């Protein structure tokens, strides 16, 4: 008898809440080698990634504390935070 193996669900840690959650419940923000910072909806782009829980309160805290600036060691344009806010409102 073969036992069916349960697929492991990839977990990621939110940079704001420090909670481990399934990857599909989070949004990834990436900084690539060229220094560009953008939202990676598929989670497949090359570069350093930071995960945020998809929640308006989390995005608000990220904007207020400029968390992504610290994570990526660069200054992040407000348009990134605006895009995050739009994702929650959809």
Overview of the molecule:
The chain has 90 residues and is an alpha+beta fold. 31% of the residues lie in helices and 24% in strands. Strand 1 and strand 2 form a beta hairpin. Helix 1 runs antiparallel to helix 3. The longest helix has 12 residues.
Topology:
Layout: E1 11-13, E2 20-22, E3 26-31, E4 37-40, E5 48-53, H1 56-65, H2 67-72, H3 78-89
Antiparallel strand pairs: 1-2, 3-4, 3-5
Helix pairs in contact: 1-3
Biggest sheet strand line-up: 4-3-5
User: How does the helix and strand content classify structurally?
Assistant: alpha+beta
What portion of residues belong to β-strands? Answer: 15-25%
Our count of domains comes out at 1
- Report Rg: 15 Å
Rounded to the nearest angstrom, the distance between the terminal CA atoms is: 46 Å
- State the CATH architecture: 2-Layer Sandwich
| Separate helix tally | 3
Superfamily (CATH H level) name? YlxR-like
Question: What fold name stands as the CATH topology?
Answer: Hypothetical Cytosolic Protein, Chain: A
Mean pLDDT metric: 91
Q: What is the count of β-strands?
A: 5
Which sequence of SSEs, written as H and E, runs from N to C? Answer: EEEEEHHH
At the first level of CATH, what is the class? Answer: Alpha Beta
Oligomer: single chain
Q: Mind summarizing the main beta sheet?
A: 3 strands, antiparallel
Low-confidence stretches: none
Helix percent reads 25-40%
Shape: globular
């Amino acid at each position: 008898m073969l036992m069916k193996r349960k697929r492991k669900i990839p977990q990621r840690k939110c940079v704001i809440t420090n909670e481990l959650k399934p990857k599909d419940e989070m949004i990834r923000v990436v900084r690539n080698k060229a220094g560009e910072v953008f939202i990676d909806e598929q989670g497949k782009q090359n570069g350093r990634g930071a995960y945020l829980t998809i929640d308006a309160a989390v995005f608000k805290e990220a904007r207020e504390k400029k968390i992504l600036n610290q994570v990526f060691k660069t200054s992040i344009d407000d348009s990134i935070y605006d895009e995050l806010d739009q994702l929650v409102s959809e």
